[in-house]
Specification:
Blueprint: H1 4-14, H2 17-30, H3 34-50, E1 53-60, E2 65-70, H4 76-90, E3 98-100, E4 104-111, E5 114-121, H5 126-143, H6 149-154, H7 156-166, E6 167-168, E7 171-172, H8 177-184, H9 189-245, H10 252-263, E8 271-272, H11 276-279, H12 296-306, E9 310-311, H13 319-323, E10 332-344, E11 350-363, E12 371-376, E13 384-387, H14 393-399, E14 401-402, E15 420-427, E16 437-446, E17 449-458, E18 464-472, E19 481-485, E20 488-492, E21 497-505, E22 511-518, E23 529-535, E24 543-549, E25 561-573
Helix pairs in contact: 1-2, 1-3, 5-7, 7-8, 9-10
């Protein structure tokens, strides 16, 4: 049907001389069917050898493949081998934007820390490849928010779809960036219809929920009205009994009992008894009847004030109070904070000891984030330091400098929060001499009274501020009788706790005592004793000696502020 000369003519016309010579040698040896051979030569081979772009990829400078789209049938091992060899070829010092090897050509463009890469055949038109590369370089920032490994991985599928719109069967399509975005963002009519149906169902569900909520509110209002009606009838009944008590004396107890029942619902109020002689100096009580719009709690407070009681109301901090704290104004604020969790035995010794410390950095301006922190530690062998994962551990161990592993990145900035944690440390072993404060409680029963003597001894290592020693007491009707107290005291009747407060403990008052008397109780009632305090001296003795600028300092040493505090987080005598 087809002669050998005809097939030779077709092969010579379709392929280059080198390929034609190879095909003319092997085709007669394979004994192909002429029809199939002509179809294979004219169509399949043309399609295979006409592909000029083999793959479009984004790789890291180490050869890590982030995104790769192949336009020929190529195994994963093959494409990974081609892309892994590319960084080694770039490092040869060439200034071109393409590299040719024995089999393929690399056309590339650096994008920050990555490479946008086209793997093409050596027979491709380099000008067309560069045009294709420029188009892809415009599309990558459109779909990736950040040109780094994380941003590329997040937008991998969108980038592949965009690459397919630019390259089809290995050839560049005549499209613009706007057209590619339009093609990739097209919505189907079925999808819109499905979304409308789902939104209508959601709206219907919300309407049903609103109707149900309104019905529940109406039922609550009706129930409240019914309760009020019952209460008014009971009030009239009570007044009837009170009227009867004018002539029948015992009937008055019903009215007073109902009033006590109403007052029992009022929240308990912390009071401290005042001297009755001082109550005469206060203004005389105002006699007033029942006022509408005034709660029972306010009436009770007014009556207690009129009787000479000192009312201590619990005031919750409002948002305005919290907002009154001034934001930091210093360029660098370093906070050294240690928290104590200690349990002391009532008969002496330490049951448990745990100290955890942190060093945090707060930077006011974003431009000042390129710094390192020089510190000094106290050299306590019991303390183990641990740096943040992003901190250069070797630099800290060798020079006591806290800096990021990547000096080209700044520390986070801002006024909110507690800053950025740089260093942590912990101490879990200590003897009783290293404890900031020890408490001794000696209760003794004598007749119908229990005499309690409490002593504290503070270590000379720390000056303590705002010390509060909370001693639990049995349920008492009146405050305990305090015989002697070095400092101030307050009795919380709601929690039945006696609070002994000392504003400052320093070298002038390293020890102190308090004595009080309560009814006879078991000695275990006075435990556990909770202690709160703060100090400006720490166990670690960590100090910030300076800030090392990495950029734009002009030779000046940055100014910083260091805040150091030791806090008793959970400090008890058990």
């Amino acid at each position: 049907m087809f002669s050998s000369s005809c097939i030779s003519t077709i092969i010579s016309s379709r392929f280059r001389p080198e390929a034609s010579a190879i095909l003319l040698i092997y085709v007669p040896m394979m004994h192909f069917d002429p029809i199939r051979l002509i179809h294979w030569i004219c169509f399949d081979f043309v399609v295979t050898f006409s592909v000029v772009v083999l793959a479009a990829s984004i790789v890291g400078k180490s050869g890590k493949v982030l995104v790769s789209r192949q336009y020929v049938d190529m195994s994963r091992i093959r494409i990974e081998g081609l892309l892994a060899a590319f960084p080694k070829l770039v490092g040869m010092g060439k200034q071109h934007t393409y590299i040719e090897t024995e089999n393929v050509r690399y056309v590339y463009q650096p994008i920050e820390v990555l490479f946008l890469l086209l793997v093409t055949t050596k027979q491709s038109n380099i000008l067309e490849d560069l045009d294709t590369l420029r188009m892809l370089s415009k599309l990558v920032p459109e779909y990736s928010m950040s040109l780094d490994e994380e941003g590329i991985n997040r937008a991998a599928f969108e980038l592949i779809f965009a690459f397919d719109e630019v390259i089809s069967l290995g050839h560049k399509e005549s499209v613009t960036v706007a057209q590619v975005k339009q093609y990739c963002e097209m919505e189907s009519h079925e999808e819109k219809l499905h979304k409308l149906v789902m939104q209508s169902k959601i709206n219907d569900t919300k309407d049903v929920m609103k109707r149900k909520a309104n019905e529940i509110d109406k039922s609550k209002i009706e129930k409240t009205r019914g309760d009020k009606g019952g209460l008014s009838s009971m009030s009239s009944l009570s007044s009837g009994f009170n009227d009867m008590s004018m002539s029948h004396g015992p009937g008055s107890s019903f009215g007073s009992g109902s009033m006590l029942g109403m007052l029992s619902d009022v929240e308990p109020i912390s009071t401290k008894a005042k001297d009755r002689s001082r109550s005469s100096v206060t203004a005389p009580p105002k006699s007033s009847g029942m006022k509408l719009g005034k709660s029972g709690k306010n009436q009770l407070m007014e009556s207690l004030k009129a009787e000479g009681e000192d009312i201590i109301e619990d005031v919750k901090p409002t948002s305005q109070t919290r907002a009154a704290v001034a934001p930091p104004t210093d360029p660098f604020t370093l906070t050294v904070e240690e928290k104590l969790n200690v349990a002391l035995r009532r008969d002496g010794g330490i049951s448990s000891f745990d100290m955890q410390g942190t060093l945090s950095l707060q930077i006011l301006n974003q431009d000042d984030g390129f710094v390192q922190v020089q510190i000094e530690t106290g050299g306590n062998p019991e303390i183990l330091f641990k740096t943040h994962p992003n901190i250069n551990r070797e630099l800290f161990n060798s020079e006591n400098i806290l800096g990021l592993k990547r000096p080209d990145q700044p520390f986070p900035t801002g006024q909110g929060g507690d800053g950025v944690g740089l260093l942590r440390w912990r101490m879990q072993r200590a003897d009783e001499s290293m404890v900031p404060l020890t408490i001794n409680c000696w209760p003794s029963v004598s007749g119908n009274e229990t005499y309690v003597s409490i002593e504290y001894e503070a270590s000379s290592m720390f000056d303590l501020t705002n010390v509060i020693i909370s001693v639990p007491l049995p349920a008492l009707r009146d405050a305990p009788v305090v015989k002697q107290c070095d400092g101030d005291w307050r009795y919380d009747s709601r929690s039945s706790v006696l609070e002994w407060s000392i504003l400052l403990i320093d070298n002038s008052n390293r020890s102190g005592s308090m004595e009080f008397v309560v009814p006879p109780v078991d000695s275990s009632v006075f435990f556990p004793i909770s202690v709160q305090f703060a100090a400006t001296t720490t166990y670690s003795g960590l100090k910030v000696t300076g800030m090392i600028p990495l950029r734009g300092s002009g030779g000046a040493t940055p100014k910083f502020v260091q805040r150091t505090q030791l806090i008793a987080q959970d400090y008890q005598v058990v």
